[in-house]
Amino acid sequence: MEVILKSDPESLCRLAADMITDLMQRKPDAVLGLATGSTPLKLYAELIRRHREEGLDFSRVRTFNLDEYVGLGPDHPQSYASYMRNHFFSSVNVHPDSTHIPNGFTEDIPAECAAYEQAIQDAGGIDLQILGIGTDGHIGFNEPTSSLTSRTRIKTLTARTLADNARFFEQEADQPHHVITMGIGTILESRQAVLLAFGDSKADAIAQAVEGPLTASVPASALQLHPKAHVFVDEAAGSQLERQDYYRWVYDQKPR
Ligand code: PGA
Fold first, then answer.
1. Which CATH class is domain 2-253?
2. Residue 171 has pLDDT above 90, yes or no
3. Which pLDDT score, from 0 to 100, does residue 209 have?
4. Whole-number Å distance between alpha carbons of 86 and 13
5. How many angstroms separate the alpha carbon of residue 179 from the centre of ligand 1?
6. Buried/exposed 203-237: b ≥16 CB within 10 Å, e otherwise
7. β 128-131/31-34 pair status
8. Confidence of residue 251 (pLDDT cuts 50, 70, 90)
9. Structure pTM?
10. Do 35 and 132 form a contact (C-beta atoms < 8 A)?
11. Residue numbers annotated as active site
12. Phi and psi angles of residue 64, each rounded to the nearest 5 degrees, phi first
């Protein structure tokens, strides 16, 4: 696991954008795994800037999002389909047919989940997966005690995640308690994973995920099994890591 600590989220988002740009230059039809929430907003803004100002070409890129709320159709303003259109897809030249988000409005959730897994396989697997982390240590919406080998399926959100995300919903009754999420096993099959975390509220989850034991109680700790996982944290999110000096020393010696 590579851990990079920097003072500001902007420079970490530029680093993540560099990784995506390098991948797209090597593989114009790269398969990107995408995340929602507050964390990746600056990353999407940087990718949009590169598209507009530097011609970064998404025309052949395929994308798979981590998760979606059960019961919210793609046009619902709080759906992750809306989030992705508003914050990224409508501002770059990715083909709408090449973007994939689980359909939370399906009547057959197991079939939707199986089809999602199949679509990832058919695309040749995910080249680079962007991840956030929940304050409870979730990745995607794999809440604590999720199986470390889980695949795309329905999950029930924890009270903590519901509270963390309540700000996006006008009324409590509007907030779904269930989601469809890629599994931890699905995420671990990505060829590279980049976990972004900013702010004090993530410090405990990051310390447990990176330096704590591998445990389903902290789903992000499963990234310890990933062959190419990168954890990009600002000073606040990295503040409880014990080996900060080592991570900085490794980064300073990295050939550029
Ligand atoms: P956030 O969510 O980016 O809004 O903090 C992260 C997550 O729940 O994975």
1. alpha beta
2. no
3. 98
4. 18
5. 14
6. bbbbbbbbebeebbebbbbbbbebeebbbbbbebb
7. parallel
8. very high
9. 0.97
10. yes
11. 67, 136, 138, 143
12. -130, 125
